[in-house]
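In response to a reviewer's request, we include the raw inputs and outputs for one of the modeled complexes. The two entities were modeled together in a single run.
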Amino acid sequence: MDDLLKKDTMNRLNTQISGIRLDNPFILASGILDENGYTMKRVLDEGAAAVVTKSIGISERSGYRPPVVVEIDGGNMINAIGLANPGIDNFGEEMKIARESMKPVIGSVFGSTAEEFALLSRKMEMYGASAIELNLSCPHVKGFGQEVGSDPDLVESIVSEVKHAVKVPVFAKLSPNISDILEIAKAAEKADAYVLINTVKAMAIDIYARMPILSNSFGGMSGPCIKHVGIRYVYEVKQETGKEIIGVGGIRTGEDALEYMMAGASCVEIGTAVHSDGRKIFKKLSLETAKIMKTERIESIGEIIGAAIRK
Amino acid sequence: MRHSEVIKVEENTPTVKTIYFEWEQDAKPGQFIMAWVPGTGEIPISLSSTDTTKSITVKSYGPASDAITKLTKGSRIFFRGPYGRAFSPVTGPTLLVGGGSGMASLKPLITMDTDAIISARTAAELLFSDRIKGGKLFEVTDDGSAGIQGNPMDALSTLDLEKYKMIYVCGPEIMLKKVYDFLNGKQIRAEFAMERLMKCGIGVCDSCSIDGFQLCRDGSIFSIEELREMTEFGRTKLTESGKRVYLNY
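The model returned the following structure tokens for the whole complex.
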């Protein structure tokens, strides 16, 4: 496969987000293979352009007891890991290991107040994060994520405080589980880019056990089944705000990635496809995307971002 | 999630039980399932029989495993899988090195040409000694209540290891590390079943990773050559929160 990815083909995939140079538009999404520094390093070495860390909070959390995932046919899943994380003070070593790859590591953080987000972001920047991703959208933990991210005033103050606290770019990851994403996007407009979308709140019941499978009952659905929800949000937010967007949700093929980029995404994050295709998904996506770009005579990612948006 | 009916329960030691159930699924020695106890929890557990009749061999160490040891004939067992990479099959003489309940995943590898070193804390906890029929059996206990008093290396060091086509090892990481150190550099083939905290079982949550490899997907079976490249083996691992702790075995 490496032979096929010749230099001229690879060059087509070069892109950037908020000034961060990326070898290709494929970034590992938060929550997937990003708790252990050695794993992040391996994912980067195996073809991801950048990784987003697991969301890190102020204090250590064990997360929910298993079952924490439910596999759904078609490469989809529902998860409720429960924001398991070692706490920011224990995360420096993982960042250090991951950064040996010499590629961008984006630090994801979650908190319940603007001050917490600012403190976490400062520490992530100190650990060498190339950017900060604000988790304003985890759908399954009380008091965090989506609960914080659905309050426009709180979102505005979080983004504003974090922007003051750090020099690196700040990305706001928003939830599809709210009535008006544009209202929240506007509240977060000081962010350098939006990350759209987080998982869709969902549930699976085992009829033989007569019980929800996840120990938390509710979780977040991801995989190909949410792709078109993501496409719609990316398109709508890009059209309305014109800001840079990182697309995420159900991307498994080069075609999916190009669809997101034509809807307005500058690059994309990959999560659940790691479950269906393994870590090799990153090389596969680069190859597929470059091939389509070649036959469609697309010389650079830049020329197709938002190409499908009707004026 | 799948379910099946428990057809037999066997008490192997005072603390270990084997639960048998029908499942027409191709599965190989070394693979595991995630066994779910609705309302209680879910645990990864190796298949101790891999024919049409499958089994898991469980020691009670927490709420979910405890509930599984209490299943009876006719109960429903819920699970998903099979997951993970299997042991490599070979023909000819093999050696098993099993510590504690580690013998569970080695049991389906037993043939008439299998020798085994089975270790446990006490005689009562020696697992599946009775299944070694054709080959030689070496029992090792911490307290000397059966066989050799000591650790598996005390038996390993007495054997001509080069005659084995494969040495299969399963047990706690401290034992794996000691066996690895003993075997490393010798002209042998060996595979180790690794253990790490596992949550998702499907290669996404990163809880069970070692040097960037996911035990649930790339393992849990690794060759001695693969372990040689791993800086985390016997040295560090992550807790359920993701906090790195040092083992220094």
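As requested, we also summarize the result in words. The longest strand of chain A covers residues 105-109. The CA atoms of residues 128 and 186 of chain A lie 28 Å apart.
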